[in-house]
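Morning. Coffee machine broken again, so started the prediction first thing and wrote up yesterday's gels while waiting. Chain of 342 residues, entered below exactly as on the submission form.
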Amino acid sequence: MKRYELTYTKGEAGVFCMSTVERPALKTQLVMFDDELKAMEFKDDEKQVIYSVAMRPNMLIPRKNVNGEPAMVFYTEETVSDLQQNFFKNNSHNGATINHDKNVRKDMYAFESWIVTDPEKDKATSLGLEVQKGDWVLGQKIDNIDVWNDVKSGKLQGFSIEAYLEPVLINNEINMTTEELDARIKAVLMASQLGTEYDVDGKKYYIDKVEVGGIITDENGTPIPSAEVSIDGKSITADEKGTITEVATPEEEAKDLAEGDGKDLQAEIDALTLENNDLKAKLSELEGKQTNMSAELEAAKKVAIEMSSEIQKGIAPAPAVVNKSYDEMSNVEKMRFNKLNK
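Came back before lunch.
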């Protein structure tokens, strides 16, 4: 299959209209904001503003009829930049169509536009768009409530240019049959509706945005419940409705695991410390009892020695003391008392 570069001759019409459509050719979708710039929230005071990528350079786009045959087309970064400038120079931003219906509405107009130079630091990234270097990003104001409702409902999902461009044949061809072309076109359309296609271990996933709140579906648009996949170095987890609940990098997972192990280890240390303190208290109690028993044993030994000495001398044991209570007697006196009062 042949490949064509779509070129623009400066001074000519170029992109003469921007159409808001159901199925944009680009694999991007609109992002909508209210006054607080919170994605996908709608309030009474909403601005009715949308942002999306209007053109992406160097992306091959399948077309069934270029000079009478199926082909792949693309734009260069320079062409995209020239078309963006010419679009405003010719005041083509004052109005837009819906699904290329040729009815230019003046209650829809482009008010902001730029070319992405650094995707990581670009405003589009902070707005929630996934952009690449050279992308033409457009902000559109919609004052038509019916059109705005179609945007909110998801019926309208992106931008599509209306332009006069000249296809220039590139020598190298792309070997693709008509069936493969149809499949490629279907994939582009599905990606525009379902999100970007990812192939993980032979299984296809479609994700509209790789962040919390995004939706993971299959090729039929059915949400995949409780999905857990690794894409571009990120671990993605979805709930039973296919809604992404967590997106973590290996570094974040390692940190969470380390923090979790640290908490478990501290809990174990605390438990062992408490058990050790209890053992110390019991040991102290036993040592106290042992001291008392040792003292009583020593007293008993002393009494036994005294009695043995008296017996050896033939001295009769002294009579029991009667003017003392039993508790007031010494150990020797108690033994004598017990012996006399058997």
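DSSP finds six helices and 17 strands in the chain. Going to sketch it on the whiteboard this afternoon.
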